[in-house]
Amino acid sequence: MIRIDDRLLHGQVAFAWKAYLGYNTVVIASDNASKDEVKKMALKMCCPSDVRLAIRSVDDALVLLRNPKLDKL
């Protein structure tokens, strides 16, 4: 499932959606957030502890999402 949203990651939604969808990974594609250590730290706090979080530039996120290894997860 892919969701496009300009809020990046919102803790309350992340936890509610986790219970409903059962996802195990969140990829945030943001050129600004990928370069900002404070934003990355805040985003990590919003992510459920059992969910992997990848914060990448838009270009790097595209490469990550196209990786065929993701099909096996």
Written overview of the protein:
- A two-stranded parallel ribbon has the order 1-2.
- The protein has helices at 11-21, 31-35, 37-46, 58-65, and strands spanning 25-29, 52-56.
- The longest helix has 11 residues, at 11-21.
- The protein is α+β, with helices and mostly antiparallel strands.
- The chain contains four helices and two strands.
- The two termini are 12 Å apart.
- The protein is globular and about 30 Å long.
- The chain is 47% helix and 14% strand.
Put simply, the count of helices is: 4
Order of helices and strands: HEHHEH
Separation, N- and C-terminal Cα atoms:
12 Å
Poorly predicted ranges: none
Q: Could you tell me the number of beta strands? A: 2
The proportion of strand residues reads: 5-15%
**Rg over CA atoms:** 12 Å
Strand arrangement in the largest pleated sheet: 1-2
The major beta sheet can be summarized as: 2 strands, parallel
The rough form would be described as globular
What structural class do the secondary elements suggest?
Answer: alpha+beta
Helix content class: 40-55%
Mean pLDDT: 87
In brief, what are we looking at here?
This protein has about 70 residues and is of the alpha+beta class. It is built from 4 helices and 2 strands.
Question: Characteristics of this structure?
Answer:
two-stranded parallel sheet; alpha+beta; 73 residues; 2 strands
